[in-house]
Known about the structure:
Distance between the termini: 37 Å
Order of helices and strands: HHHHHHHHHHH
CATH superfamily of the largest domain: High mobility group box domain
CATH topology of the largest domain: DNA Binding (I), subunit A
Structural class: mainly alpha
Strand content: under 5%
Low-confidence stretches: 1-9, 21-42, 247-275
Number of strands: 0
Domain HMG box: 47-115, 152-216
Keywords: Activator, DNA-binding, Mitochondrion, Mitochondrion nucleoid, Nucleus, Phosphoprotein, Repeat, Signal, Transcription, Transcription regulation, Transit peptide
Pfam families: HMG_box, HMG_box_2
Bound molecules: 2-acetamido-2-deoxy-beta-D-glucopyranose
GO molecular function, one term: DNA binding
CATH architecture of the largest domain: Orthogonal Bundle
Signal peptide: 1-29
Helix content: 55-70%
Amino acid sequence: MAPFGLLSVGANLLVKSLGLFSSASVVRCSCVAPVLKSFSTTTGGPPKRPLTAYMTYVKEMHPTISRQNPGIKNVDIVRKLAQQWKMLTLEQKQPFQDASSASREQYKLVLEKYKAQLTPAQTAALAVEKRQKVAKRKAIRRKKELNSLGKPKRPRSAFNIFMSEHFEEAKGTNMQTKMKSLRDDWERFNATQKQMYIQLAEDDKVRYKNEIKSWEEHMIEIGREDLVRRKERRAIKAKTTKDIKKKSKVRVLKAKAPKKKTGTAVKKTVESTKK
Ligand SMILES: *[C@@H]1O[C@H](CO)[C@@H](O)[C@H](O)[C@H]1NC(C)=O
């Protein structure tokens, strides 16, 4: 499941970064040899980052695939091209590598020129922007890593569960209005109407507690203690100390999951509470 998910995320990102959403913007070009484009300097903004060899290939081949498969979605085109790219020999990839190298060289030059004409304030602002971008990228990478390591999903709140169960039929034409009407519904609910969702949320907390416990144990086993919650790390250390020194005052922070009713009986009454 994971590789497919990653592939589709990658395809989406690529569609976005190449601006492939509007088919009108796609250059109509049947040539296979990559075209070297100059960077736009008319906007006054920083030059666009150069395309990688793969991105150059996607941009080149996109119109062809689009023409050969009428009605195909952009994401599917990119997915097709990703598969094709993997099948290419080094020799076949070479022209795209060359184009990418050339545009990277050109990018460096344009970037130097761009930086040289900035005011000190603009330079400072650019540095801040860059730091934020790096932080964002780091956060995304971390999230991806945690996903690939199968980190359990955080427990959902009662409202969250209510929302996902009723999103489809909610009043409203878009995400925002639907959310708003669901939030209003939730506000109007009395304790009895909320009870089922509160129970489900409690169950989800237990689920999370159990899953995160064994996940963290597994992370320690594979040497990724850095991914274990700080509190738990301390608890583990404390436990070890206790085992060695038999300190009586050490409190083990890991509490046993309290016994809970399953809530499946309540789940069945969901239909009756609907309007
Ligand atoms: C809560 O609302 C439901 C549905 O409107 C109603 O049947 C029930 O009597 C209410 N319960 C309380 C405690 O007000």
